[in-house]
């Protein structure tokens, strides 16, 4: 592997260094390793604490207060903002929409990613080329894909041309309360399936081929092999994909902001967009902060579940 | 292998399966390519022609006999062109500074034995578990108070400390034999020398993987630049593009050309470093 090569390359500069600096060496030996480690860590630690943890802490703190017009400042309201949120029709709708969205889009994407991973690991002409076409959309920034699909979804756009080719009537897509969320799901699947497929292909390639041969000798059908050999052996990457996909789908923002603004009539109002409108359009920052905390907690719960899942699949 | 083939069926059936899988794979692949291909073709024709060949579908929907680069030329002088340049600047600085910061932290976590390394690692993990987009709004409020709104620094800073990049690099650094550290010390190297002369040269593949992580984080971000940098000087490509889409009089040709440019840049980088990209993906999945 690489170490031996680089070891040789390393030797030349160091032999000169040895001669010069015996004093620095002894001085460095005395410096406490904790201090040195801290110096190495400081830039990253500061940026992580200030730019990730602090805003979460600030959101948590501010979610416990409320602007008071009477007293002209902020007053402590405890969990009042959270209580108000759950009594707020827009928020409960956004929560419901996000839940429905997650329950549909995640199985859809992961199922498709798994089947495609199986398809593209079989021997077939040009499998690598077709596979990379499926992966291609991951290079497209989310905002760009939303803009492109906004044209596809126009009444006179590419989407309806295809429906016409199949003899189907034109659909309203984004302007229909029944179709807006589904339209966003299709766009997100176009982006996401290839990405998640990469993890599953890596998992499938790790399955020893002797297992398939053994199953073939036992006369197992292709479906049977898929279900009894491939599926259990890629459980680990599957569990990872399940959690990572769920978390990323909780945080969908660009397509909603660009395509539907949460509408029509709240039908595509996902949590992230609801937080955004609450903070900037409605200007109710303390409730928006409470909503941020709810979202962070939701994702943390899912990640915690991941660790449980992975541990139990290790044990099995 | 011969035993396996004997049981999978007759050669004729296997050829049929081979053909079927090839055709199916090709159809699905082309279907995924279609939106991007259509975008590309439309970027090569005047904006007025975008909807001309859509009803009914015809070969000209997906091909053009008279390609023109005029949309790309127009892009050069547009706000979108400037915004794309901003995206390049912001991403490039993020990768260079972010790699320095993250690799130093990963080195301290992987190579230097010190008390409290467990606690530091927990901070890294926690910060990595808090999704950035979720805390973007409270952070944007802080940045407004700190006068970082509409500055390059404001756009770049959140991309620098990346828990995922630290994690990737730490995993790689842990695999470097400790004997090398000892040898380095005997040769008179301090920790900085060990980091610069031993760890970094050995870790080029994982540095590229981490660099890709940092780059994609910044290039794909939408919410943060929308909250923090929307004046004409600091606007980033994706924001400028979506602003264009919201206007009444859209030149679709230029919009599609901008979409292609914003896609081709990361695509070229991913393809160029494909091997490392796949590597970092599989490391992430295996955790």
Summarize the structure.
The complex is a heterodimer of chains A (316) and B (287). With 316 residues, chain A is an all-alpha fold.
Describe this structure in words.
The complex is a heterodimer of chains A (316) and B (287). With 316 residues, chain A is mainly α. Chain A has 2 domains: 21-62, no CATH class; 83-315, MetI-like (MetI-like fold, Orthogonal Bundle), CATH 1.10.3720.10. In chain A, 75% of the residues lie in helices and 3% in strands. Chain A has a two-stranded antiparallel ribbon. The longest helix of chain A has 33 residues, at 89-121. The relative contact order of chain A is 0.11. The model of chain A is unreliable at 1-28 (pLDDT under 50). With 287 residues, chain B is mainly alpha-helical. In chain B, helix 5 (79-111) packs across helix 9 (163-174) and helix 9 (163-174) packs antiparallel against helix 12. The longest helix of chain B is centred in the first third of the chain and has 33 residues, at 11-43. The two termini of chain B are 33 Å apart. In chain B, 44% of the residues are buried. The chains are: A mainly alpha (316), B mainly alpha (287). The interface between A and B is large, with 118 and 110 residues.
Q: What percentage of the residues of chain A does DSSP assign to strands (E)? A: under 5%
User: Which structural class fits the helix and strand makeup of chain A?
Assistant: mainly alpha
- What pattern of helices and strands is seen along the backbone of chain A? HHHEEHHHHHHHHHHHH
Number of helices of chain A: 15
Find the biggest chain interface: A-B, 118 and 110 residues
Return the CATH class of the largest domain in chain A. Mainly Alpha
Here the CATH topology of the largest domain in chain A equals MetI-like fold
CATH topology of the largest domain in chain B: MetI-like fold
Total beta strands of chain A = 2
**How many distinct domains of chain A?**
2
* Low-pLDDT residue intervals, each spanning 5 or more residues of chain B: 1-7
What average pLDDT do the residues of chain B reach? Answer: 86
Which sequence of SSEs, written as H and E, runs from N to C of chain B? Answer: HHHHHHHHHHHHHHHH
CATH superfamily of the largest domain in chain B: MetI-like
Summarize the biggest pleated sheet of chain A. 2 strands, antiparallel
Q: Point out poorly predicted stretches of chain A.
A: 1-28
Residue fraction in strands of chain B: under 5%
Indicate the CATH architecture of the largest domain in chain A.
Orthogonal Bundle
